[in-house]
Design goal:
- The chain has 3 helices and no strands.
- It is mainly α and 86 residues long.
- It has a domain of 32 residues.
- The longest helix has 22 residues.
- The chain is elongated and about 100 Å long.
- The relative contact order is 0.04.
Length: 86
Amino acid sequence: MKTKSNIVDDDLRPEYKFDYSKAVRGKHFKRLLEEGANVIVLDPDIAKTFTSSSAVNDALRSLLDLTRSTQSLTRRSNGRSKTHAA
Protein backbone atom coordinates (compact mmCIF):
# COMPACT_ATOMS: atom_id res chain seq x y z
CA MET A 1 0.00 0.00 0.00
CA LYS A 2 1.07 3.52 -0.73
CA THR A 3 1.08 6.08 2.07
CA LYS A 4 -0.72 9.36 1.48
CA SER A 5 1.32 12.50 1.54
CA ASN A 6 0.36 14.99 4.26
CA ILE A 7 1.70 17.91 2.26
CA VAL A 8 -1.02 20.35 1.21
CA ASP A 9 -0.49 21.97 -2.13
CA ASP A 10 -1.28 25.60 -1.34
CA ASP A 11 -1.22 27.72 -4.46
CA LEU A 12 -2.51 30.95 -2.88
CA ARG A 13 -0.32 33.98 -2.96
CA PRO A 14 0.96 35.18 0.42
CA GLU A 15 -1.14 38.37 0.28
CA TYR A 16 -4.32 36.27 0.11
CA LYS A 17 -3.56 34.22 3.19
CA PHE A 18 -5.71 35.16 6.16
CA ASP A 19 -5.00 34.41 9.80
CA TYR A 20 -8.38 33.21 11.06
CA SER A 21 -7.10 33.01 14.64
CA LYS A 22 -7.39 36.81 14.82
CA ALA A 23 -10.86 37.00 13.25
CA VAL A 24 -13.78 38.35 15.29
CA ARG A 25 -17.17 36.77 14.70
CA GLY A 26 -19.96 39.29 14.10
CA LYS A 27 -17.59 42.27 14.18
CA HIS A 28 -19.88 44.48 12.06
CA PHE A 29 -23.20 42.89 12.97
CA LYS A 30 -24.15 45.35 15.74
CA ARG A 31 -23.39 48.38 13.55
CA LEU A 32 -25.51 47.00 10.74
CA LEU A 33 -28.42 46.48 13.13
CA GLU A 34 -28.12 50.00 14.52
CA GLU A 35 -27.99 51.58 11.07
CA GLY A 36 -30.87 49.49 9.83
CA ALA A 37 -28.92 48.26 6.85
CA ASN A 38 -30.67 45.73 4.69
CA VAL A 39 -30.33 44.42 1.19
CA ILE A 40 -33.10 44.42 -1.37
CA VAL A 41 -32.63 42.57 -4.64
CA LEU A 42 -34.17 44.20 -7.69
CA ASP A 43 -35.48 42.30 -10.67
CA PRO A 44 -33.18 42.64 -13.70
CA ASP A 45 -35.55 44.89 -15.66
CA ILE A 46 -35.87 47.26 -12.69
CA ALA A 47 -32.11 47.22 -12.09
CA LYS A 48 -31.54 48.36 -15.69
CA THR A 49 -33.77 51.38 -15.11
CA PHE A 50 -32.42 52.35 -11.69
CA THR A 51 -28.65 52.19 -11.82
CA SER A 52 -28.00 53.42 -8.29
CA SER A 53 -29.54 53.21 -4.85
CA SER A 54 -30.12 56.97 -4.83
CA ALA A 55 -32.18 56.67 -8.04
CA VAL A 56 -34.35 54.00 -6.44
CA ASN A 57 -34.74 56.09 -3.27
CA ASP A 58 -35.70 59.20 -5.27
CA ALA A 59 -38.32 57.28 -7.24
CA LEU A 60 -39.80 55.74 -4.09
CA ARG A 61 -39.88 59.11 -2.32
CA SER A 62 -41.74 60.69 -5.22
CA LEU A 63 -44.19 57.77 -5.20
CA LEU A 64 -44.77 58.27 -1.47
CA ASP A 65 -45.34 62.00 -2.00
CA LEU A 66 -47.82 61.23 -4.75
CA THR A 67 -49.75 58.78 -2.60
CA ARG A 68 -49.85 61.25 0.28
CA SER A 69 -51.18 64.03 -1.95
CA THR A 70 -53.86 61.84 -3.55
CA GLN A 71 -54.83 60.05 -0.35
CA SER A 72 -57.25 62.78 0.66
CA LEU A 73 -58.89 62.57 -2.76
CA THR A 74 -59.50 58.84 -2.51
CA ARG A 75 -60.37 58.67 1.18
CA ARG A 76 -64.06 58.15 1.70
CA SER A 77 -66.17 59.18 4.62
CA ASN A 78 -68.74 56.86 6.17
CA GLY A 79 -70.35 56.35 2.76
CA ARG A 80 -73.28 58.75 3.25
CA SER A 81 -73.56 62.12 1.69
CA LYS A 82 -74.13 65.10 3.98
CA THR A 83 -77.61 65.74 2.57
CA HIS A 84 -78.83 62.28 3.55
CA ALA A 85 -77.47 62.30 7.09
CA ALA A 86 -80.25 62.22 9.65
